[in-house]
Amino acid sequence: MGTTKIRTNRREFLRSTATAAGGLFTFFWLQPTKAFILVSREEGVTEGPWYGIGIDIEKCIGCGKCAAACKDENDVPKDPFFFRNWVEQYTVKKDGSVVIESPNGGMDGFTQSVPDDQVFKSFFVPKMCNHCQTSPCVQVCPIGATYDSPEGVVLVDEESCMGCRYCVQACPYGCRYIHPKKNVVDKCTLCYHRIKKDLIPACFEVCPTGARIFGDLNDKNSELIRFLGEKNVQVLKAHLNTGSKLYYHSLSMEVL
Amino acid sequence: MKIKIPPQINRLVLLFILVTGLFLIVRQFLIPDTFGDLGHYRAASLEDNSDIPLNFAGGAACFDCHEDIFDLKEQDLHSGLSCETCHGPGQAHVNSMEASDIFIPTGREYCGRCHDKNAARPTDYVMQVDVSTHNEGLDCNECHNAHQPWELLR
Q1: Quick check: B27 contacting A, CB < 8 Å?
Q2: What does the pLDDT look like over B25-38, one tens digit per residue?
Q3: Nearest CA in chain A to B61
Q4: How many CB atoms lie within 10 A of CB A206?
Q5: Which pLDDT score is estimated for A46?
Q6: What is the ipTM of this complex?
Q7: pLDDT at A50 over 60
Q8: CB B58 to CB A75 under 8 A?
Q9: What is the rounded average pLDDT of the residues A112-118?
Q10: Which of A57, A70, A73 would you mutate first to test chain B, the one with the most B CBs within 10 A?
């Protein structure tokens, strides 16, 4: 049985609590958190490419070849509605409403559904994994099965993934899905197997108008850096600070 | 001053050390070998992701055998297109050299994928026609050589 008195000294208690709180406050003050994350490489990592993507909405003709090529290159199952890469059509009607369509991800092309006289403006938006620098999907994985490769490509380790779907929920761009046969997470890998052989990803290869630009953000002479400098670029959901490396030119407000 | 530690505390501390020790030992077996080399992931997975076979061969692969068609294409408006844009994945054809291993597009619907009139298509990047009314009944190939589309055949 305990025979020690319960401490009743109020001053002692307040002193120890204040010390603890003060220590905690100082600790957090010394470790500032960044308000806005600028997309920049980690310190110390200077060699090797760091990949980014540019998409020019003004040039996209909505042929859907990028969506089809991705499925062909990466053996993505054609049947269920899962895409690593898809195209959406936005039609702003004269009455102000917006119609968004993506028939089979745009893989078979588009046909115009809204008659010409009701269309105010219309455009195509190809979407894919943004390969974010501070990606929410990488942050939430409980076991480190998805990660940011040294080249800036967000990849999935299929052997480790346990299919908890936390990352599928976390991605704000909706680009991850569960592979119906393998039951692990699948997503755009920026054709990692191609870029390692100095080829470009399949979707960039087949774009007929050059609306999609793939490049090395570290290379000052690359087409992508020129694109970022010359054009007005934006990223999707900038307020979420994902550090997205997919830059759109001429993105209209309806998409954001 | 001698502080008397109750035996319960002794047992708890011992238990804590035992459990932590067990955890550390089991952890050694369960964590994969290359984990942590480059970051919080299994570094060998980078190789797994690179070892996938190619299906698209890339624009330069066609040039070696089909230089004449390549030159034809470069002179006309389809010059910016990669061969595989219309012909589909070409790696199987590069491997086997068989004509049957690559897709040859035919039919009006195929060309309509890009060229059909659509309000969302920018007119300065693609020529557009109304596929349902433009020269009905004829196949696109009868008037246009796909590799040199403005050199009309009829």
Answers
A1: no
A2: 898 888 888 888 88
A3: A199
A4: 28
A5: 58
A6: 0.83
A7: yes
A8: no
A9: 91
A10: A73
CATH annotation of B54-104: 1.10.287
Longest distance between any two alpha carbons in chain B, whole Å: 111
Q: What three-state secondary structure class fits A180? A: coil
State the Cα angle at B139 between B137 and B144, rounded to 5°: 130
Dihedral sign, Cα of residue B9, residue B11, residue B13, residue B16: negative
| Angstroms from A68 CA to nearest CA on chain B | 9
Residue range(s) of every CATH 1.10.287 domain in chain B? 54-104
Question: Would you say residue A126 has pLDDT above 90?
Answer: yes
Each residue's pLDDT tens digit, A146-193: 999 999 999 999 999 999 999 999 999 999 999 998 999 999 999 999
Q: What is the DSSP string of B16-53?
A: HHHHHHHHHHHHHHHS-TTBTSSSSSBTTHHHHHH-PP
User: A186, A163 in Cβ contact below 8 A?
Assistant: no
Distance between CA atoms of A23 and A25, rounded to whole angstroms?
5
The pair phi, psi for residue A23, each rounded to 5°, is -65, -40
- Report the alpha-carbon distance of residue B83 to residue B80 in Å, rounded: 10
Instruction: Provide the Cα torsion A142, A143, A149, A154; round to 10°.
Output: -50
Q: In whole angstroms, what is the distance from residue B29 CA to residue B32 CA?
A: 8
With bands split at pLDDT 50, 70 and 90, how would you rate the model's confidence at A122?
A: very high
Between the two ends of chain A, the Cα-to-Cα distance in Å is: 66
Tokens of A235: 């990223």
pLDDT score at B77: 87
Domains and CATH numbers, chain A: 51-249 (3.30.70.20)
Which tens digit of pLDDT belongs to each residue from B77-120? 888 899 999 999 999 999 998 888 889 988 888 898 999 999 99
Q: Across-strand partners of A154?
A: A148
Closest C-alpha among A64, A79, A57 to residue A111: A64
